[in-house]
Amino acid sequence: MNKTVVGIALCIGLVIGGGLVWFTRQQRRPPKVPAVDEVLQEQIDRVQSGIVVSFASNRANDATLMKLATQRRLRHCYLRASKITDAGLACLAELPLLETLDLSHTPVTDPGLESLANTDSLRLLILNDNRIDGSGLQHLKNNEHLEVLRLRNTDLTDEAMAGLTSFGELAELTLSRTKVGDKGLSHLAGLEGLRVLWLSYTDVGDSGLESLKDLKQLITLGLRGTKITDEGLKHLGALEKLESLFLSETEITDQGLQQLTGLSSLENLRLRDTKISDAGIEHLKKLPSLDYVTLSSPPITQEAIDSLKQAVPGVEVDVEEEEEEKE
Length: 327
Prior knowledge:
The protein is of the alpha/beta class. Helices cover 25% and strands 10% of the residues. The chain has ten helices and eleven strands. It has an eleven-stranded parallel sheet, with no helix packed on it. Strand 9, helix 9 (278-284) and strand 10 (292-294) form a beta-alpha-beta unit.
C-alpha cells in the first residue's frame, strides 16, 4: 500500500480516536450546576431589564434572599425547599409589590411571619410542610387582600384558626393534614367569598360541616379521610355552586348520598373506600351535571355502573385507578 495513503489513514484514526476519548470523558463528567449566585444574578438581571419573574432554588438561603430583596419590582417569589429561615424573611418587607410567596418545606416558623405584617400586596401565600402551628397568622391581619393560603401538613390548631377571620377576600384555603377540627371551622363562617376549601385528613366531623353551610360560593370541597358521616352531609345541600366534592375514605353510606341530590352543579364526586353500595347509585342518577365519579368495586357491581352511565350520559366512572391526593 502506498506509504502516503497509510500515513493519511493513521492521522485520521488518531483524530477520530482522540475525539472519541474526549467525548467519552465529557459524557462521564457530571453536568455543571450553576452556583446559587449565578442563578440569582440571572434572575436579578431579568428583573432589572423590566421582566418581573419568580426566583426558585433549593439552595437559596438567607444571604440569597437578602440580595434578591433589593429588587423592589419583584412580584413572585418561589422558595420551596430552600434554606430560608425567619431571619431571612425580614428582607421581604422591602418588596412592596410582592404578590406570590412560596415558603413551603422551609425552616420558617410562626415568629418569622411577623416580617410579612406589612406586605399588603400579597395575594398568594404557601406555607405547606412547615413547622407552623398558626400562632403567627395574627401577624398577617393587615394582608386583607390575600386570596390563596395553603397550610397543608402543618401543626395548625383550632385556636389558631381565629387568625383567618381578617382575610375577607380569601378564595382558596388548604388545611389538609393539620390538627384542625370542628371547633376551628367555626372561624370560616365569615369568609363568604371562599371558593376552594381542602380539609382532607383532618379531625373535621359532622358538626364542623354546619359552619360551611353559608359559604355559598364554594365550588370545591375536599373532605377525604375526615370523620364525617351521613349526618354531616345535610349541611352541604345548600352549596348550590359546588362542582367538586371529595368524600373518599369516609363513613358515608347510600343514605347519605340522598342529601346531595339537590347539588345540580356537581360534576366531580369522589366516593372511593366508602360504604356506598349499588343502592346508592340510584341517588347519583339525580345529579344532572355529574361528569366524573370514583367508586370502589366491589361492592359496586358492573351492572350498577352501567345503569348510572345510561341514566347520566357521558359520565365517567372510575373504579380502578388509585386516587391521587389533592391539596
